[in-house]
Amino acid sequence: MKDLTPARDSLDPIEIASRDEISALQLERLKWSLRHAYDNVAFYKKSFDAAGVHPDDLNDLSDLAKFPFTVKTDLRDNYPFGMFAVPQDQVKRIHASSGTTGQPTVVGYTENDLKNWGNVVARSLRAAGMRAGDMLHNAYGYGLFTGGLGIHLGADALGLSTVPISGGMTPRQVRLIEDFKPKGITVTPSYALSVLDEFNAQGLDPRDSSLEVGIFGAEPWTNAMRLEIEQAFDMHAVDIYGLSEVIGPGVSMECVESKDGLHIWEDHFYPEIINPETGEVVAEGEMGELVFTSLTKEAFPIIRYRTRDLTRLLAGTARSMRRMEKVTGRSDDMIILRGVNVFPTQIEELLMDQSALAPHFQIELSRPDRMDQMRILTEVSNSGIDASARDHATAQLAAAIKQSVGISAKVEVGDVGAVPRSEGKAVRIIDMRPKA
Q1: What is the mean pLDDT of the chain?
Q2: Integer angstrom CA distances of residue 180 from 132, 162, 185, 229, 409
Q3: Does pLDDT of 261 surpass 50?
Q4: What CA–CA distance (Å, rounded) separates 103 from 76?
Q5: How many other β-carbons are positioned within 10 Å of the β-carbon of residue 286?
Q6: Contact 212/1 with Cβ under 8 angstroms?
Q7: pLDDT higher than 50, residue 334
Q8: Any bridge partners for residue 361, and if so which?
Q9: How many CA atoms lie within 13 Å of 346's alpha carbon, on the beta-carbon side?
Q10: Where do runs of H (alpha helix) occur along 273-417?
Q11: How far apart are CA 259 and CA 16, in angstroms?
Q12: Residue 256 to residue 238: CA distance in whole angstroms
């Protein structure tokens, strides 16, 4: 693999500033962000007042712990634009979640927000080894999902030549990689393995391709998967992290020269790690739930947003800004499957619509053929259900999951009692996917 380490003088000065300089900038911007949210978003005024805190109470970065958390249900409860802090005519872009668990979460961007988003994604792409004039094969989905358009925004800011192919049509993906010869690819890690399989199916050696770096995000992936991809393609594989509630892709990025965790762009996003049970901030280096506060967002400021992702904060290495370890899991029961967020309650709701099926189920996750797979085990509602009715209900549930959740799942319906019972909390998820 080629050495793609960026030149020191190509970095933004803040990336290699002292911790004192970074902290001073964070405090200044945090004071502005809290005041902006309090003055312009009714939810935050009510939330701060109820907690007995005011933006003027922030005199030190540690004072942020006095302020209340924001959670996803707060965003849904204020659908569609109740969390926006600027008039509608200042909102230049709107993204949203799929809304498969209820109301979608809607986020907005001013012109300045888009500029900042482009800059942090450009910084991320440069940290991955991309340079102005390079070609990027962008296989993240385009649309309301922030992945495709967010990466594209940063690619434009960095001066890349972008192939906006989006996801799917795997044979065409390989053909364009072969014909266009991009240097980098942005894609979910599980889909990268499908692209690898397609190279092999077409009798092509992926090590002979033009790809020098793969930038992977939108779902958890293991270091074992990284090694397989790097060896198969003879390219670097690095991790990018983001979520739409905070901005989208580009919140943090693994640097190609170190690959030792993701540097958080702390001039725009202030991180905390909390104990998910108590909500207390834990010491740096301890495992806990990741919380973010935006420092520069105008249209959609976010204060102490609980991501539910489990990780820990570490000191900077290739950059001065702190690192977060690869996300190891979540503090809730959400599943991330091929970049799609899935909750067991979604499956339960769809199951309840099938009168021939009982409300007992388990979700089994595996990775037999490189791509994550979901298997739903349930059972008939009574022993009088005949084979025809069972087959019909099976097909109906599978179709409903595909339509509502957006992923394909294998549904297996057993006899009464087929699903294991628990005297305590039901074991809904059995995750057999390999761990890092």
Answers
A1: 92
A2: 17, 11, 12, 20, 34
A3: yes
A4: 5
A5: 12
A6: yes
A7: yes
A8: 378
A9: 26
A10: 344-352, 387-404
A11: 17
A12: 6
Are 305 and 347 contacting, i.e. CB atoms less than 8 angstroms apart?
no
Confidence (pLDDT) at 21: 98
The closest alpha carbon to 231, from 206, 210, 200, belongs to: 206
Question: Using CB atoms within 10 A of its CB, is residue 415 exposed (0-12), middle (13-18) or buried (19+)?
Answer: exposed
Distances in Å between the Cα of 415 and the Cα atoms of 369, 377, 380, 401 are 28, 11, 6, 21
Q: Structure tokens of 102? A: 């209820």
**Which percentage of the chain shows pLDDT scores above 90?**
74
Give percent helix, percent strand, percent coil of the chain, each to the nearest 5: 35, 25, 40
Q: Is beta strand 371-380 parallel, antiparallel or unpaired with respect to 323-324? A: unpaired
Select the more confidently predicted residue: 101 or 370: 370
Question: φ, ψ for residue 386 (rounded to 5)?
Answer: -85, 175
Residue 194: name the closest of 97, 339, 325 by CA.
339
pLDDT of 328 strictly over 70: no
Contact status, residue 267 vs residue 25, Cβ threshold 8 Å: yes
Angle (CA) 183-144-310 rounded to 5° is 75
CA dist 151 and 248 (Å) reads 9
The alpha-helical segments, DSSP class H, found in 130-215 are 146-158, 170-180, 189-201
3 state SS of 296: coil
DSSP secondary structure code for residue 70 in this structure: B
Does residue 235 contact residue 205 with C-beta atoms inside 8 Å? Answer: no
Closest-CA residue to 75 (of 51, 47, 56, 55):
47
43 closest CA partner among 51, 274, 280: 51
Instruction: Report the C-alpha gap between 308 and 290 in whole angstroms.
Output: 7
Strands of 288-294's sheet, edge to edge? 269-274, 288-294, 305-311, 329-330
State the Cα–Cα distance between residues 230 and 4, nearest whole angstrom. Answer: 14
Question: What 3-state class would DSSP assign to 7?
Answer: coil
Going by C-beta distance under 8 Å and a sequence separation of 6 or more, which residues neighbour residue 398?
A: 408, 409, 410, 411
Instruction: Give the HSE-up count for residue 250: Cα atoms under 13 Å, Cβ half-sphere.
Output: 31
Q: How many other C-beta atoms are found inside a 10 Å radius of the C-beta of residue 224?
A: 11
Cα 47 to chain center, whole Å? 26
The pTM of this model reads 0.80
Q: Compute the half-sphere exposure of residue 347: CA atoms within 13 Å on the CB side of its CA.
A: 28
Q: How far is Cα 197 from Cα 321, in angstroms, rounded to an integer?
A: 37
Length of the chain: 436
- Six-digit token string for 90: 């200042």
Residue 13: which residues within 8 A CB-CB, separation 6 or more?
none
Nearest to 294 by CA among 320, 264, 324: 264
